[in-house]
Sequence to fold (325 residues):
Amino acid sequence: MELIAGDIGGTKSWLAWAAGKAEGAMQLRFERVYASADFASAEALLQQFITDAAVSARPDILALALPGPLHAQQVRLTNLDWTVDSDTLQASLGIRKVFFINDFQAAAAGVETLTADDLVTLNPQPAEPGGVRAITGAGTGLGLAFMLADGKGHYRTFAAEGGHIDFAPADAVQARLLESLRGEYGHVSWERVVSGSAMNDLYRFCCIERGQPLPGVPTDGAALVARAGSGDIAAEAALDLFIDLYGAWVGNVALMYRPQGGLYIAGGVSVHLQSRMQSVRFIEAAVNKGRMRGVVEHTPIFLVTSSRLGVAGALAQGQGAAALH
Fold:
């Protein structure tokens, strides 16, 4: 069996080609990361990957982890101007089986592949064997999935779109942020404040709050960190605000799912802000839930530092699909 798996993101796409039996160890043939914006479509990206891989065999299965809700085998992606169609890919690439999964469903499957070196403990509580697990994370957007164990302790993964539920402010500053974003977007979801794409709005808000001139160009996460490092007080305030919001969101996930098997935080933004994620500020924002504070305090929370979590999960899902046929 020849399997191509991909984790398609708004910023980057991670692709891997593996070979082996449907059940058993897979051998990685080729792996590469691409800037998603360099390609007009998923088809163009995959054609380039196949060319770069230079594998003589033809792929049998293509498993793609895609951002956004999956209702059918034609998907309009969130935060990326692509429509991906399984029939089109199957015909143009000559692949026998093509299937899609949600990107954070793939990340959830990837949790099983993690080692201790891939995790940083943020809230040191014992994980319950077979307990519910949840995974969330800020990348270009804000993803969420959960995992339930069967009678044999094997986890099934389930996608969710919780990042798009209504944002609720926790204090006066966040209330002003909500009003500002409501004027810009109408509906304000948690993804509008906890994601890589939110960084520019958070910085502009903090500039206005502090009477600083607005930046002439959009500010991404890397630029925000650089500005804060150079003494920009609005940038520092924006990062503090982001950590407060991210912590509050993680606390919400803990209350929604009661993930005693572990609450995992993934996504590129989390890794780049690791030192801030490990701060008292972050955990305090997470547990600040009034009467339900103790529920979050007793939730084991981990930061995933592995950069290939999504593609590892897509490989596992692809291998599992092959075993069923």
Observations:
- The chain has two domains: 2-109+308-323, 115-305.
